[in-house]
Amino acid sequence: MAGVSLKCGDCGALLKSVQEAQDHAELTSHSNFAESTEPVLNLVCKDCGKPCRSITESDLHTKRTGHTDFVDQTAVNIEPISLEVPKAVPEDAMDIDADGVSGKPEDLVVPEVDKKLLEELESMGFSTARATRALFNSGSSILEAAVNWLVEHESDPDIDEMPLERIRIGKELLEAKRIEEENERKRIIALRKAEKEEEKKAREKIRKKLEEDKAERRQRLGLPPEEHQPVKPPTPIVEEKKIMLPIRPATKAEQMRECLRSIKQKHKEDDAKVKRAFQTLLTYIGNVVKNPSEEKFRKIRLTNPSFQERVGELGGVAFLELCGFAKSEGDEFLFLPQDKVDMAILTSAGSELNSAINNPFFGVL
Hints:
Pfam families: PUB, UBA_7, zf-C2H2_OTU1_C. The chain has a three-stranded antiparallel sheet. The longest helix has 51 residues, at 170-220. Helix 7 (252-266) packs parallel to helix 11 and helix 8 (271-290) runs antiparallel to helix 11. It has helices at residues 18-28, 55-65, 115-123, 128-138, 143-152, 170-220, 252-266, 271-290, 305-310, 316-322, 343-358, and strands at residues 5-8, 14-15, 33-36, 43-45, 51-52, 70-72, 108-109, 165-166, 299-301, 326-328, 333-335. By secondary structure, the chain is mainly α. The chain is globular and about 80 Å long. The chain has four domains: 5-72, no CATH class; 108-163, Helicase, Ruva Protein, domain 3 (Orthogonal Bundle); 168-196; 250-358, Methane Monooxygenase Hydroxylase, Chain G, domain 1 (Up-down Bundle), CATH 1.20.58.2190. 46% of the residues lie in helices and 8% in strands.
């Protein structure tokens, strides 16, 4: 069988073309490639249509979106790989400015968004421009997050203009992708660590409950309590000079986690409403992270009915204040000054919200 991919001998990655192999080599410094008969995996999400090229990528997609159904289309349109080296583009034909961005008008393009979600928003009566702008700016593959963005920004002056983005040159795209993947990996590690802690606490609670039930059954049957190892006599107390150790104050992440746990406990009878509030908070935080210089993402009207229904009534204002927002203009707005934007705190907030949304054990204790 003719080769259908190029395999990196250093890390095992499968690549679709010589160009991909060159990009991979530039990003990783790997140089050992060989033609392979193993096709590049193509798992397509049934819910949003996103293609995933590895099991790890599909697992990350499931973690972020909750989508679990994938169609294996690896065998579709498999073609022998071309080993022809792509021709280099002359530098004088690229018209690149000092920032690494092409200045030609044709380099401004409409950003790619989820076509399925775009069609759903259009069927709800939103124009193509509004729907595209909502999906692009909310940065989410969840329909509700895009609708929330439209509600919050329906009076924006450019709401009916099609969003445009510039095409970045190869190196910049690769570096941005590498940084995004590294940040995602760190978020997944933090999320899994928090999940394990929650699971450990939940198992301990269940174990204690089983022991209590067992003791209660023995009592009803008239059986003596279960014998345990004899307790050693207490060691005589020796007077020692007490040393007062400083109490470690709760970290910002712990305060955020406790705030979210409190919201879930107070509204545990309406899990869907709580999840919607967490997703809305995640949208607010994500918008600031992606556009820290845009004031409209750092200013929230407290009297907005949608905000009150989704976040305010459940106690979400306290969480936003932990993220750096503060009440202003007679308590009419929540505002985060640009010089107070702390990416570390906002990233931590995003991790805590992801854990609260996706971890089934969150808030059960």
